[in-house]
Amino acid sequence: MDGFRHEGGCHCGAVRWTFETAHRLEEFTPRACDCDFCTRHRAAWVSDAAGSLQVRDPGGQLRRYRQGSGQADFLICGNCGVLVGVTCVDNDGLRRGAVNRNSFDERHLLGAEVVASPQQLAPEAKLARWSQLWTPATLP
């Protein structure tokens, strides 16, 4: 892919990711979900449906947590507890994901966040929205 390669991961370095996109970090507006889980983690999500996301977990520390509608897997480091990303499987069977702005190595370059309220959507509408916004992803 022509463009930019952005890196990030958890605090201890056990879970890392690479996000490839045609966009500079300054061009992104992180989406701050207003659900209780995301607000407790101060999470705001960054994704590009035309990009790619690869999550790496060589030490086996990646943990998955489901809540709400149970459609998304929140990706958390089992060692340091950092919420690094979220993934789902769309209706076409493609894994898609978004990364938490707080887990970018160069998070200071990201723009200001906007609030999103996916909890107001029905489960089918959530999956449709994520299918349009989230990045094709590979996980260990």
Keywords:
140 residues; mainly beta; Metal Binding Protein, Guanine Nucleotide Exchange Factor, Chain A; nine-stranded mixed sheet; two-stranded parallel sheet; 36% strand; globular
Structure description:
It is a single chain. This protein has one domain (4-138): Metal Binding Protein, Guanine Nucleotide Exchange Factor, Chain A. The chain is globular, with a radius of gyration of 14 Å. It has helices spanning 36-41, 123-133; strands spanning 4-9, 16-21, 31-33, 45-46, 52-56, 62-65, 73-77, 83-89, 95-100, 114-116, 135-138. The chain is 12% helix and 36% strand. The strands form two sheets. Strands 1, 2, 4, 5, 6, 7, 8, 9 and 11 form a nine-stranded mixed beta sheet that branches. Strands 3-10 form a two-stranded parallel sheet. The model has no long low-confidence stretch (mean pLDDT 93). With 140 residues, it is mainly beta. Keywords: Metal-binding, Zinc. InterPro entries: CENP-V-like (IPR052355), CENP-V/GFA (IPR006913), Mss4-like_sf (IPR011057).
Summarize the structure.
The chain is mostly beta strands and 140 residues long. It has helices at 36-41, 123-133; strands at residues 4-9, 16-21, 31-33, 45-46, 52-56, 62-65, 73-77, 83-89, 95-100, 114-116, 135-138.
